Amino acid sequence: MSEHGGNVVEMGLQAGIDPALLLDFSANINPLGLPESVKSLIVNNLQVIEHYPDVEYRHLHQAIARANQCDYDQVIAGNGETELIYGLVRALAPRLAMLLVPGFAEYRRALQQQGCQIIDYALSEQDGFQVTTSLLDAVRTHRPDCLFIATPNNPTGLMPDAGLLNQLATLCETLQIALIVDEAFIDFLPSGSGLAARLKTSRYLYLLRSLTKFFAIPGLRLGYLLSGHTELITLMKNTREPWTINALSALVGQHLLTDERYIQASHEYIARQRDELWRRLDGFPSLVVWKSAVNFIFFRCLRHNLNLQQALLQHHILIRHCANFPGLDGSCYRVAVRTEEQNKKLINALTDVLQEG
Ligand SMILES: Cc1ncc(COP(=O)(O)O)c(C=O)c1O
């Protein structure tokens, strides 16, 4: 089974289906696709690839700092957020880390590469997989060097309570624990400014952002990290390999964050499609569906002898099986919210596979 969503090549090969024929619901990419502004920027500036990009990425870092109302030296961009997860873990060199499960796989891989001991904090199904105040108790008890939390979380699509998140940030500041908040999907929340306002006063807060999901550029790659711990940001800039972000990606990143028309259109479209897809999924008696704040939906299939991912592949539809997320069993799945027409295809295929609805 693929470690991540979006692995259409591997899944197609395994199922004996041409990957080009698969409709991919396993990667959580904005269904509106690449913004028009990005397309024309790339087409009109292809010549930038004839030169090395500015190794300091000055314009890109300035644009990110401006968009987030923070200082230039609080920002580092990366070749996707993933580069920064690994770079941050290397720079922090934690010996004991806490992870919330289920959660995104790359935190664990990055920590394991550094030989870091990991404590899992299980989000319980009884609490609807939501973060509760017991996380604060666990942090006080274990005193890890760092804690990763994704807001909203992947694969559940749930956003923790804002008050609780602020309490967690205050606690970590007091106990001098690095709080690494993965805001990869925060742009999908219309009011989502996350914890950025706390950066001015915090030295233990790290905000990871991805541009690949919201702006539909997973193949181009771009993400960034914000932190008030400017010495650490400088260390990361000085110790990483040069030119990890290609020149086209750096150029696109300077303009993306101000494309208000695309941002607004995405919020409206995704909210409409998500609500409709949720309603249709919830209509299947054998599916238990969680409410989502973002562009993907998490559910459990009560037919335990049915592998929904395999069954839907026969309809040339790829969904994310969540069996390899620690803390989940083989009955959980995640689907992206796609276009109206594509979502209908998913519902029709599910109707056929489940013979109900
Ligand atoms: C929660 C979360 N964080 C980070 C990433 C990585 O994002 P990027 O494509 O910017 O490396 C992903 C990708 O799926 C994700 O789900």
TrEMBL record:
The keyword Lyase applies. PROSITE patterns: AA_TRANSFER_CLASS_1 (PS00105). Its EC number is 4.1.1.81. Gene3D superfamilies: Aspartate Aminotransferase, domain 1 (3.90.1150.10), Type I PLP-dependent aspartate aminotransferase-like (Major domain) (3.40.640.10). Residues 23-350 form the Aminotransferase class I/classII large domain. InterPro entries: Aminotransferase_I/II_large (IPR004839), CobD (IPR005860), NHTrfase_class1_PyrdxlP-BS (IPR004838), PyrdxlP-dep_Trfase (IPR015424), PyrdxlP-dep_Trfase_major (IPR015421), PyrdxlP-dep_Trfase_small (IPR015422). The keyword Lyase applies. It catalyses: O-phospho-L-threonine + H(+) = (R)-1-aminopropan-2-yl phosphate + CO2. It is an enzyme of class 4 (lyase). Pfam families: Aminotran_1_2 (PF00155). Keywords: Cobalamin biosynthesis, Lyase, Pyridoxal phosphate. It comes from the Bacteria. Decarboxylates L-threonine-O-3-phosphate to yield (R)-1-amino-2-propanol O-2-phosphate, the precursor for the linkage between the nucleotide loop and the corrin ring in cobalamin. This is threonine-phosphate decarboxylase.
